[in-house]
Amino acid sequence: MLVIPTLIFYLVLHLTSVSLPIFTAAAPHPSASLPHRTLAGISIIDTPIVRAAQAYAQLHCSPGTYNHVMRTWLSGVYHLSHNSTLASQVDLEVHALGLILHDLATHHDLNAEFVSRYRRFEVDSAVAAANFLRSYLQSHPEEKEADVFAIYWGNELEFSWGRPGGEKMGVTDEEYARVVKEFSREVGGGEGGGILEFVAWYCRFKPESTYRDTWMQPFGEMLVPGYSAVGHRLLDLNLAAAGVNVSKYLDRL
Ligand SMILES: *[C@@H]1O[C@H](CO)[C@@H](O)[C@H](O)[C@H]1NC(C)=O
Ligand SMILES: *[C@@H]1O[C@H](CO)[C@@H](O)[C@H](O)[C@H]1NC(C)=O
């Protein structure tokens, strides 16, 4: 099982939205025969490392964030139940670990464990997850594209549900309702309370991690007085690298 490279792939996917090629395979994935249990109406993998990851997430995440990661995992498993091609390719342990551990560094506290001053929270979370997993696993240089695809969608479904026309990947409203019933969206203690407060905190207190045209940058411009990415956007960096002095041109345009 190759979790750490998978997390790095996942991270790259998360940050760049690049879609990766998927291998085709027919046989059921071997991880399907590992121990399972039922939660929120669906059979989920239940191995020692998956349990340990759940306990770790519960210990280190706020209750709201813990419920969020559990929802992404369970709705991700529902997604797999609607796509047997994908299910045959996905290592259910990697899938579970990737989703359960994807938000370890979301505390709004610069002194909190895992929270760096300058790195994006996604990177901080991936580093924390990799460190946790390293103590359990030895890695092998092997790629896991299908796992990455499935992990990506498990997380994306969480956001699709609140969005008109959001992709549901075959998961029904009834199935998703079971997930939310088990891991409520209403639980207090989610960092920032809502998505706007969640993002504004990074723009205010870790602005360097939001520059370079990240998805957070426009939120900073919209929400945080005095926030400006000017000088730090990809455009600025590219022009500087090309030796272009924009001020010289502004008068002429
Ligand atoms: C099923 O998963 C495969 C990846 O294995 C993907 O290419 C395909 O689009 C998915 N099918 C549906 C109907 O979502
Ligand atoms: C860029 O051009 C402006 C206006 O011509 C000038 O004042 C400034 O010193 C230049 N900056 C650099 C780094 O050359």
Describe the structure.
The protein is mainly alpha-helical and 253 residues long. It has 2 domains: 4-191, no CATH class; 192-253, no CATH class. Helices cover 52% and strands 3% of the residues. The chain contains 12 helices and 2 strands. It has helices at 3-16, 48-60, 63-81, 84-89, 92-100, 121-134, 145-160, 173-182, 195-205, 217-223, 234-241, 246-250; strands spanning 36-39, 42-45. A two-stranded antiparallel sheet has the order 1-2. The longest helix is centred in the N-terminal third of the chain and has 19 residues, at 63-81. The chain starts with a helix and ends with a helix. Residues 8-21 and 139-144 have low confidence and may be disordered. The chain binds 2-acetamido-2-deoxy-beta-D-glucopyranose (NAG) (2 copies). One 2-acetamido-2-deoxy-beta-D-glucopyranose is lined by residues 245, 247-248.
What's the structural blueprint in terms of helices and strands?
Elements: H1 3-16, E1 36-39, E2 42-45, H2 48-60, H3 63-81, H4 84-89, H5 92-100, H6 121-134, H7 145-160, H8 173-182, H9 195-205, H10 217-223, H11 234-241, H12 246-250
Antiparallel strand pairs: 1-2
Bound molecules: 2-acetamido-2-deoxy-beta-D-glucopyranose (2 copies).
One 2-acetamido-2-deoxy-beta-D-glucopyranose binds at residues 245, 247-248.
* Residue windows where pLDDT falls under 50 for at least 5 positions: 8-21, 139-144
| Terminal residue distance | 57 Å
Number of helices: 12
Number of strands: 2
What is the 3D form? elongated
SSE arrangement, N to C: HEEHHHHHHHHHHH
Percent range of helical residues: 40-55%
As laid out across the biggest beta sheet, the strand order is: 1-2
**Major sheet attributes:** 2 strands, antiparallel
Assembly context of the chains: single chain
In percent, how much strand structure appears in the residues? under 5%
What small molecules does this complex bind? Answer: 2-acetamido-2-deoxy-beta-D-glucopyranose
What is the number of domains?
Answer: 2
Radius of gyration, CA atoms, in whole angstroms: 20 Å
Protein name: HD domain-containing protein
Signal peptide: 1-26
Keywords: Signal
